[in-house]
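Technical note accompanying the year-one report. For the benefit of new consortium partners, we illustrate the data format agreed upon in the data management plan: each record pairs a sequence with a structure-token string. No post-processing was applied to the example shown here.
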Amino acid sequence: MAGRPAPAARATKDLFLTTFTPDAAATLGGPDWFRARRLAAAERFSAGSLPDATEEIWRYSRISELDLDAYRPALGAPDEAAPPGSLTEVTGERAALVVVHNGRPTRIEVDPALAAKGLVVADAGDLPDGDDMLGLTPVADAFTELNTAFLPGATVVRIPRGMVVEQPIVIVHHLDGDGIASFARTVVVAGENSDATVIEHQSSSDVVAFSDPVVELDVGDAARLRYLNVQDLGPRVFQVGYQSSRVGRDATLQSSVVALGGDYARVRTDSRIDGKGGTSYLTAVYFADGSRMHDFRTIQDHIAPKTTSDLLFKGAVSDTARSVYSGLIRIGKEARGTNAFQTNRNLVLSEGAGAESVPNLEIETNDVICSHASAVGPIDDEQRYYLESRGIPPEVAERLIVLGFFGEVLDRLPASDAVTGLRAALVRRLAERASGAGPA
């Protein structure tokens, strides 16, 4: 695709970077604790190495194309205006709004009545205990260290014990500026027996950029948290994202991803269920056209007994686009009575497109119910024939079949107003494919 940075010529995985160094991290401002944390992470990053596709967790990826020195941290004073194309127009009423520009929170609005009852939505650098908020859930690879090393700020959402937040908390991210690297961080802490929905939306201008977001979700005992990430980045953005969650006793996490944009867009999701009776639902919808690639890696990690996880990822690829799904259900020795399910299904809409699907199980105890399933294939000819034989044009028939295929996941998404907008976005993208307009 035009404008994509040339692949890096790396003979080894060792780091020889001139931009993302401890000295560069030391120049960033903020409280002393923030500066110390950044510097320590930068030193760990510099002492390590970048991954490559020989590692199982990176197999089939395009990580060899990433040349970090082609980018620079976004350090300028950000514009506080809400970016165009955000979800603020389709979510209706909301409990809070955060605008994040090039990784930095620039505008935060919170319903005063909820703030008075203890709802916290803030930049970690403005909190007296901000240092305690970062790293609540396990995060450990080169790109999470890089994120910490160059964090311009971090959005913290803290729902107090027993609070029910009826309207969604909306976080809108926007990238602009050729050659920038963005390091966004979102931390959500759902207190015991709380209930809330958090929606994040990522967009960008048509720029060459690198995005390295980290999301941490900590779901307290008996809490209920719904999280939705909508990724609609420009066609020349290279993203390596990470989401980590911890689910407590009798708690429920419903975490969803909708991926429509980017050049190469990767999200690794680690969900750790360490409280008895905890439940983690993981869902995703992704559509890639042109030469895009969507890359998903998941771990459903059952630590405690009588826990449940259910994963359903569905994707479609066309033109020369590709997708990868690799998932692991891991059931520890103490996780007796666990129920765990993993399903990945993919539609391949063009001869030049491709999808990889690699489910895995790792079980260390008895008395469990586990299953995994995957499928990669074209649209069913009988479905297509049924619609076309009733006078529906071929391009419309394909669109209806794909939307129906995605419907099972879209129906599980947490915010109905947002889903309406997402369905419209999928229809528009499929219509562009049928008309030959190309990727948005």
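Partners are asked to follow this layout when depositing records. The radius of gyration is 21 Å.
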